[in-house]
Specification:
monooxygenase, 5-stranded parallel β-sheet, 540 residues, globular, 16 helices, Steroid monooxygenase, FAD/NAD(P)-binding domain, oxidoreductase, binds 3-acetylpyridine adenine dinucleotide, 8-stranded mixed β-sheet, alpha/beta, flavoprotein
Length: 540
């Protein structure tokens, strides 16, 4: 039943994958290995996904390189060497290109092809996927690997079109780069992206104006270079690391500190916090005290610790007042790693504007006007983030049973079954979609590989059974949504507005978009579904 009929036109596939990032490439490898006729469509002109589009100055991964990779090939693990602990964008992009070449993945990828719609035909149990240029493809399965942070947001400031200088969004950075020498540059946004851009360009621009709405906590990155000894050490540890990352809270090789914070004497707490801080990684956040997510008092103590670290690095107390976060607790929004970020504000050529105190009113021909004054600019950079979790999927016109639009359905309530499938959309699978840990609370490659493997196994199971459709039941979906929300509401995170809760997009229904029950626990639940013969999924 799944075999492609011999008379089928060349644009008929068993599976279509959308997106050639970390999950799309791996999904292609796996489904092809299973013998499916697969085609992957990618809007860009090469592979890399996030690491293709986000080539802004300073773009760098916040996960350690030795766990930011694929585990499926021992040869790949043995031959690839990472240059440092937290590599820059170009190195991760090179790695993903190497993987694409090493496994001849490009043979089945069509580049420069943005998918506009995916419509399900109930009578045939198949999808029609159509590109922006109007090419249509017919497929049994569709796997959307479109990313959780890939639909950029440019706030609709008045006068955007009048600006005479250059405007960029970090998530659509030009390949040829941008020359900042001597220029007056403005950056809007101080999230993980803004921080990386600001600390990188501050020494090279003529003048930098940072428009900050919400100050962020950030941890100083410790980024040693790796040599031959490190590489051989990692190679020996890879099997253990591969197993380890699948069971921890956030898919890293570290996990929460075992001892409860409240059971420690003040000196011991301080010692542990200092050790975590000195590690220079995200372990301070998702490998420190779990109470940071659940106990407001403990969170406040840890927040105070971090605030004092930040304040100590800023010369002008008035500037420090603007930069030290007081309106939310440490770790309730994404905590970035930084490299001499706070020292940037000690420079003469850098000015910090608090846009809560002086609102951005419009972009003018020569710069940006707030309620206080006009700031003359040659270049304006939007580090204003993404329509997270849902944006990349809803930008495609996805229609399931009865022509039901996913965008419309999610405008009222975002729902998925474990972030893997959606009731009403048979044979459609998703990676990095809402209600799974991937977008917010996971070392992304850990979660994406787990999801791809689950999808691959599920498709194999359905084919072996001779079934033509796979779809979660409505009951299963409701059960997962209820569980997701229960776990979310046990934490402090939904109380703090950010992209985690959809608060950065007007009109988005407020909810914690990513599952916060832990990567290990999520994986276990996915495994249980598989072991039960996919209980909660109709495979017929
Ligand atoms: O986006 P963000 P991002 N007027 O949404 C501000 C991942 N990532 O691209 O906080 C003024 O976090 C907004 O202000 P506020 C990581 O998961 C990973 O930085 O809403 N300001 C905020 O400061 C990260 O969390 C890595 O008040 C406006 C900023 O723009 C995710 O991507 C590196 C505004 C947006 O911050 C997204 O990060 C980089 C307006 N109208 C990113 N609208 C690594 O692992 C928005 N802002 C290396």
């Amino acid at each position: 039943m799944f075999d492609t009929p011999p008379e089928a036109p060349s644009k008929t596939y068993d599976a279509v994958i959308v997106g050639a990032g970390i999950s799309g490439l791996y999904q292609l490898y796996r489904l092809r290995e299973q013998g499916l006729r697969v085609r992957l469509f990618e809007a860009g002109n090469s592979v890399g996904g996030t690491w293709y589009w986000n080539r802004y100055p300073g773009a760098r991964v916040d996960s350690q390189s030795y766990i930011y990779q694929y585990w499926f090939s021992d040869e790949l693990l043995q031959e690839w060497t990472w240059s440092e602990r937290f590599p820059a964008q170009a190195e991760v992009e090179r790695y993903l290109n190497h993987v694409a070449d090493r496994f001849s993945l490009r043979d089945d990828i069509q580049f420069n092809t943005r998918i506009r719609s995916a419509h399900y035909d109930e009578t045939r149990g198949r999808w029609t996927v159509t590109s922006e240029s109007g090419e249509s493809f017919d497929s049994q399965f569709v796997v959307m690997c479109v990313g959780g942070l890939s639909a950029p947001i440019v706030p609709p400031f008045r006068g955007h079109e009048n600006f005479k200088g250059q405007i960029f969004h970090t998530g659509r950075w030009p390949k040829e780069g941008v020359d900042f020498a001597g220029k007056r540059v403005g950056v809007i946004g101080t999230g993980a992206t803004g921080i990386q851009v600001i600390q990188t360009i501050a020494p090279t621009v003529g003048h930098l104006t940072v428009f900050q709405r919400t100050p962020n906590y950030a941890i100083p990155m410790r980024n040693p270079k790796y040599g031959a000894e490190d590489h051989s050490d990692f190679r020996q540890r890879y099997p253990a690391l591969k197993a380890r990352v699948q069971s921890t809270f956030a898919g890293f090789d570290y996990d929460f500190h075992g001892k409860p914070y409240r059971e420690m004497a003040p000196e011991e707490r301080n010692r542990v916090l200092e050790e975590l801080w000195a590690d220079g990684s995200l372990s301070m956040w998702i490998g420190g005290f779990s109470e940071v997510f659940t106990d407001a008092e403990v969170n406040e103590e840890i927040s105070k610790f971090v605030r004092s670290k930040i304040r100590a690095r800023i010369n002008d107390p008035a500037v420090a007042d603007k930069l030290v976060p007081t309106d939310h607790g440490f770790g309730t929004r994404r905590v970035p790693l930084e490299t001499r970020y706070f020292e940037v504000y000690n420079r003469d050529n850098v000015e910090l504007v608090d846009v809560k105190a002086e609102r951005i009113e419009e972009i003018t021909a020569n710069g940006l006007r707030t309620s206080a004054r006009e700031y003359p600019l040659d270049v304006l950079i939007f580090a204003t983030g993404f329509d997270a979790g849902t944006g990349a999927l809803t930008s495609i016109d996805v229609r399931g049973r009865g022509g039901k639009s996913l965008k419309e359905s999610w405008s009222k309530q975002v729902h998925t079954t474990m972030g893997l499938q959606i009731n009403g959309y048979p044979n459609l699978f998703t990676t990095m979609a809402p209600l799974a840990p991937a977008a917010a609370f996971c070392n992304v490659p850990t979660c994406l590989q787990q999801q791809v493997d689950w999808i691959n196994d599920c498709i194999r199971y359905a084919r072996a059974k001779g079934a033509s459709t796979v779809e979660p039941t409505a009951e299963m979906e409701t059960r997962w949504l209820t569980h997701h929300n229960e776990v979310a509401n046990m934490t402090l995170v939904p109380k703090t507005p950010s992209w985690y809760t959809g608060a950065n997009v007007d009109g988005k229904p407020p909810m914690l978009l990513s599952y916060i029950g832990g990567v290990g626990a999520y994986r276990q639940q996915c495994e249980e579904v598989k072991a039960s013969g996919y209980a909660g999924f109709a495979i017929e």
